[in-house]
Amino acid sequence: MKVRVASAGTGKTASLVLRYLELISSGTPLRRIAGVTFTRKAADELRVRVGQAIEEVLSRGRHLDFAAQAASQPAFLEAAREITGATLSTIHGFMGWCLRLAAPMLHLDPDFSMLGDWEAQALFEEEWNTLRYLAQEPGHLLHGMATDDLTEPLLYLFSRRSLAEAFEPGEGEANERLLRVYKAVYAAYEARLGSNLLSPSELERRALELTRHPRALERVLERVQVLLVDEYQDVNPLQGAFFEALEQAGLPIEMVGDPKQSIYAFRDADVGVFRKALREGQLLPPLARSYRHSQTLARFLNRLTAHLAAQGQGFAPEEAPPVESTRPEQGRLEIHWVDGELPMDDLRRYEAWVLAQRLRDLSSQTAFSEMAVLVRSYQSVPFLEEAFSAAQVPYVLLQGRGYYERQEVRDLYHALRAALDPRGLSLAVFLRSSFGQHTEEGPLKPLELAEIEAVLRSSDPLQALELRWPSVHARLRQIQSRLRLEAPLEVLKYLIRAPLMAGRAYHDFLEPRARENVDALLFYFAPRPPQSLEALLERLERLSRQADAGDVPQSGEGVQILTIHRAKGLEWPVVAVFDLGRKNTHQARPLYLGRKEDAGNRLTQWVALPDTPQFAVFKEQVKAQEEEESYRLFYVAASRARDTLLLTGSVSKGKPEGWVRVLEALNLGPYSPPYNRPEFVLHTWRYQPIPPSPVIGPSEPPESSPWVEARFDLEPFPPLFSPSAYKRLEAEPLPLPDPEEGEALPGRARAIGTLVHYAIGQNWHPDNPVHLANLEAQEVMFPFGPDERFSIMDEVKTLLQNYQGLLGTQLPWPRDEDYPEFAVALPLGTTVWQGVIDRLYRVGGQWYLEDYKTDQEMRPEQYYFQLGVYLAAVRQAWQVEPEVRLVYLRFGEVIRLEKTLLEAALNEIRPSEKRNAFSQPGS
Questions:
Q1: Is the separation of the CB atoms in 384 and 375 below 8 Å?
Q2: Contacts by 504-512 with C-beta closer than 8 Å and gap 24+?
Q3: Strand ranges (DSSP E) for 501-549?
Q4: Burial, 99: exposed, middle or buried (Cβ in 10 Å; 0-12, 13-18, 19+)?
Q5: Is the pLDDT of residue 809 over 80?
Q6: Whether residues 431 and 515 fall in one domain
Q7: Residue 425 falls within a domain, yes or no?
Q8: How confident is the prediction for the chain on average, in pLDDT?
Q9: If 0-12 CB within 10 Å is exposed, 13-18 middle and 19+ buried, where does residue 469 land?
Q10: What does DSSP say about strands 831-843 and 846-853: parallel, antiparallel, or unpaired?
Q11: How far apart are CA 103 and CA 124, in angstroms?
Q12: Could you say which of 246, 355, 411, 664 is the most buried, measured as most Cβ atoms within 10 Å of its Cβ?
């Protein structure tokens, strides 16, 4: 196993592309090289860049530092043909590819499907609820053990299953009880997935199982000769064990990554997997040339990583090789501190104001859209939004996490829940939200917390609400009435857009970003509307646990605000890292996973619940890992800038916290000597009240565009319409079909007409039993019983016999050219008229256009418009002049129609235009 450390900006992807070229040149076919990276976007980018490099080698003989030998030309030609099918994918994509190769050996369906993590969590929870119900029976093996207090620990343990192949109980009876229940629920969950459904974690487990199956592993090794793995610092323990097993089986593996950028522990990434590869594998020379950073920033990053490595803060010295900038630009580093005696939130407001002023100054050289501000936590964002708005700095808040936990989304959830069951938490949220605004004392006013509490504490909350706040009670009743009358999606639209609060809709109370989020909620449900309110609520509740769902990204130009985790892999000319004084906080967990010192198997994690002996030890292990990752997070943030990096932080009462301490140790802290040079600024701002924003007077309204008052008249017909529908519905558009109702059942007349037209189009004979049997088997006959079928077929047979009696007498036979069921389309105004001519045929020099009717009475005028469309279409497309005839099969009569009548009927549909449809070009 070969391992290479590649720091930020050192051309990691370019090095992988060069390695592809070297392998192809040495005789390894591209189809035998597997490239694996962390995201689909990165995999697609790698495919594009490898393809471009191959094309460059074929056209110029070289790419970057690689020069191809003339003898390798055929190999690169072959690679160019194979690039679209080359194995370049994510880790999970590669694992799935391996499993499909040997699926039957592993008792898997080769066409297995993938579940999302949140869907897997929902299935596991369903199995837990089932077990909890069954375990209430005294004879159940887990009777008395499957209690409600295990719900949170079980779901947490399930969410971390990529950390270990097996969980074992730490010391204590509670841990043993938890693991016994977990294994029972997990076994039921696996049985439910079966052989054709896998979630990402189960995919990893199956892939690891494959490496222990000799024949299955042999199939993979037959197809892959070299495996290249990118971003190896982001793999989890199960993924690392999979790659390690492949390497031990003889597959050459080359991996590249940067332990300094391992920041995804919340996704189960474990930097220890990379470190093990560094210890046990062949260490390749690190990539030491930065193509991203200016001279000043490269020197700062070297100083920062050397200090952190020396202190053992986040990474070791061998993981932090110095880099040299290849760019001639000097670049700029600015460090701005805010110092004061006030609480941190007050200092952060001033810090955001300082940053906004600096970005405005820099905008004279760099556009706002080329700037980014990175934050460690979204709790820092409101300070930036306030300061940027006041300073008129345009900004765009990029996608964050927790979309389905946003207040506006939860407000809608609880409004629906309160209408369904007006009690408890949902009623409280409803009253606290915009829906709880009342008009009892004049203008709209929100309920106070004490007022809400009084309603909730009453013996009958609804009655108390009606007595004290009748306008709010009436609003809730309005929503409840909608629930009984309309589909769930329509009720959701009503909640968002109806003017329920004194003429104002819920939508009107939201900030622009929140409005975008609720609009996105409607777009999400529109393609797959839930069938019941309970299904809608359950869907929203499950989605709220989908941690990766983010806010709707804002559009527009401006400074981009995003978290450091979201910024990984990106870069900007100007980057600011805001709120360096924010402390590293630890969120308590329902249980902790850890490793025993005497346990050699790193794929086993031991579980400790609160009040068990190892709980405190494992908790400290997790907190130490989080502290380490926080330093790596700082490196990732600082390494996103190409030219200019701004670092800002606040210090309250002379006590530096968070990353301020790191820079203080480098003598770059708030109490270090100030600097002010072109390439480096270090400045400490003493807190002072933020100056008031300049008052901007009203501007002259812009002159209205000439098209503002324009109005578009409704067209009389849809863009695509049929002449038969025009006749049937008197020019009214056809209604959209209701997917719940299905298609309308055919009546007897429609069934007869359909079968007769089909038989004539197929030239079927009424005396042929096979033809009649085929007709009776048509789908249009399914709704009818045996007696009615017999009656219909008897009538169809009679009509077909009448048609046969007309052939050779009133209907010419045989024919020189014959086109049954002839489809035509005629553009007329803004509508394309589309239909099917029953029969168009030629006998000698005469063309005939016929329409067969099974009507009970003869009224030719009903069909003038329809046949006028057909006549105009045939004239324009083929430049022939057919004779137009109606064939009434019940009466055995053929009626020849006057063309002037057909032309008049067609031109009457747009009398205002006075156009002759028969003179239009083309059809």
A1: yes
A2: 504/444, 506/411, 506/412, 506/434, 506/435, 509/434, 510/408
A3: none
A4: buried
A5: yes
A6: yes
A7: yes
A8: 87
A9: buried
A10: antiparallel
A11: 24
A12: 355
Indicate if 791 and 898 belong to the same structural domain: no
Please tell me the distance from the alpha carbon of residue 561 to that of residue 388, in angstroms, as a whole number. Answer: 11
- Over residues 689-745, the pLDDT tens digits come to 988 766 555 556 677 777 767 776 777 788 888 887 776 654 344 343 333 333 444
Q: Are 756 and 766 in contact (CB under 8 A)?
A: no
Question: Both tokens of residue 850?
Answer: 């016929």
- Encoded amino acid at 824, one letter: V
The number of domains in the chain is 6
Reported as a single tens digit per residue, the pLDDT across 474-519 is 888 888 888 877 888 888 888 888 888 888 888 888 877 677 767 7
Q: Are residues 15 and 75 in the same domain?
A: yes
Spatial separation of the C-alpha atoms in residues 714 and 702, rounded to whole Å: 30
pLDDT at position 698: 57
Query: Tokens 């070969």 correspond to what residue?
Result: 2
- Whether 902 and 786 share a structural domain: no
Tell me how far apart the alpha carbons of residues 181 and 590 are, in angstroms, rounded to a whole number: 16
Nearby residues of 145 by Cβ (< 8 Å), 6 or more positions away: 135, 177, 180, 181
SS3 115: coil
- Report yes or no: 256 and 229 within 8 Å, Cβ to Cβ: yes
Which of 144-148, 186-190, 328-332, 478-482 bottoms out in mean pLDDT, i.e. has the lowest? 478-482
Whether 573 and 365 have beta carbons less than 8 Å apart is answered as no
Same domain, 919 and 849: yes
Task: List the one residue out of 179, 176, 169, 377 whose CA is nearest residue 266.
Answer: 377
Q: Which of 324-338, 640-654, 680-694 has the lowest mean pLDDT?
A: 680-694
- Sheet containing 226-229, strands listed edge to edge, beginning at the edge strand earlier in sequence: 87-90, 33-37, 226-229, 253-257, 2-5, 282-283
The domain of 161 spans: 113-194
**Tokens (6 digits) for 91:** 């880790």
Least confident of 115-124, 308-317, 616-625, 817-826: 115-124
Enter the tokens of residue 853: 């009717």
Q: Per-residue pLDDT for 404 more than 70?
A: no
| Statement to judge: residues 771 and 841 lie in one domain | no
Per DSSP, the chain holds a count of helices (H) and strands (E) of 31, 29
813 and 914 share one domain: yes
Q: Which two structure tokens, joined as six digits, stand for 412?
A: 């809608």
Contacts for 418-425 with beta carbons within 8 Å, 24 or more apart? 418/476, 419/476, 419/479, 419/480, 419/483, 420/483, 420/533, 420/534, 420/537, 422/461, 422/462, 422/476, 423/461, 424/456
Q: What is the distance between the alpha carbons of residues 523 and 496, in angstroms, rounded to a whole number? A: 13
CA 790 – CA 796 distance, rounded (Å): 10
Q: Give the angle subtended at the CA of 540 by the CAs of 537 and 542, to the nearest 5°.
A: 110
d(CA 376, CA 579): 8
pTM above 0.85, yes or no: no
In a domain, 549, yes or no: no
What tens digit of pLDDT does each residue of 516-570 get?
767 777 777 776 677 777 777 776 665 554 444 444 444 457 899 989 988 888 8
| C-alpha closest to that of 471 among 502, 510, 450 | 502
Q: What is the C-alpha separation between 721 and 61, in angstroms, rounded?
A: 59
